[in-house]
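User: Run a structure prediction on this.
Assistant: Running it now.
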Amino acid sequence: MGKKEITVNPKMIKKFFLSFLLGFISLYFIEHKSSTKAYPGKLDYNERFVNMDLKISALYLETFFGERVPIPTDNWKNRDVYYKSDFHNYKYSSQRYLKATIIDYKYGILFSLIYFLIFIFFSFFKFKVKK
């Protein structure tokens, strides 16, 4: 019985890595649509307004796909989350989005597979527009 060879086009390998990169970049940008959920320590339900001096007991980034990423509170108060502070700094936010991307890795793989299938489709079928 003769040996069978499997040949892989080097362009397909490049497209595979490109689709992997595009899939996770897409996921990272989708994570920007995540929402932050803050839970204050003690609530007095008789008060009409939320006290901005209460410490935050739990802080989560709820991803676009429903996962929860815990965020360290560092003795933050309500005003730190709801008003302008380091919490809203993009340098800090990008770390949260990166953690969310790592937690939602399965969607990044799914996006990569979709990109790769699109690349394969357009490499096997050529479309021409006639005048």
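Residues 33-42+50-119 form one domain.
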